[in-house]
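Retro notes - structure team

What went well: the batch runner handled both jobs without manual restarts.
What didn't: labels got mixed up in the shared folder, which is why I'm recording both outputs here explicitly, each with its sequence directly above its tokens.

Job 1
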Amino acid sequence: MAGSNNHATPPQIPLLNYLDSKGRYEGFDAERITIEWCNKRIASRHSNFRFQFVDVRTRHYNPKGRYKPSEFRFPYPDNTFDFFFLASVFTHMLPEDVEN
């Protein structure tokens, strides 16, 4: 999840002061406007932060998405990250989507 829906204080903002040049942040979201906001305000100024749009179908943010959540694969190889963080994700998913 790349950002917050209100765009006031996305969850990755505090990480700007935590990650040094060796650390990186990879974010993705099914809401294109969130990715555009993060790329414009964060990634353009911090090369170790990257955000990408994923075309996953969601009722509120991407109703015409190409992929069903139950079929979506993260856009990274297995064992890529030391740590990951989700904010308000599972509350928007059905059980079969979470199982994937």
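Job 2
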Amino acid sequence: MRVARSLDINHVILETDAAQVAYALNSRTYKLDYSSTFVKDCHHLIKEFSSVKFMHAKRSCNKVAHELAKVAMSKDRIKVWVNGGPCEIMAFVMAEKLKIVSGCTN
């Protein structure tokens, strides 16, 4: 969210494979014990955007994000890709594009 804000993006849709986290982030009253600090921080950042929506996506339907998270965990420092991405996930990006174009939903 901080990266989106620094790029002057005002309308954001974020996906997570954790359904309870997505629900907690979309709710102003829901408490999630193990990640309540994270949820509270996100709720604070939401105020800086025109619109923010958190969506649940099954991991099997979000292979690109899963692979990107694996790449990020292997890096020593923070990386931000704006136009493109790391070579390690570009094959997954192309596969997702093909599924969308062909109408495949899973």
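One thing worth noting from job 2: The first helix runs from residue 2 to 6.
We'll revisit the folder naming next retro.
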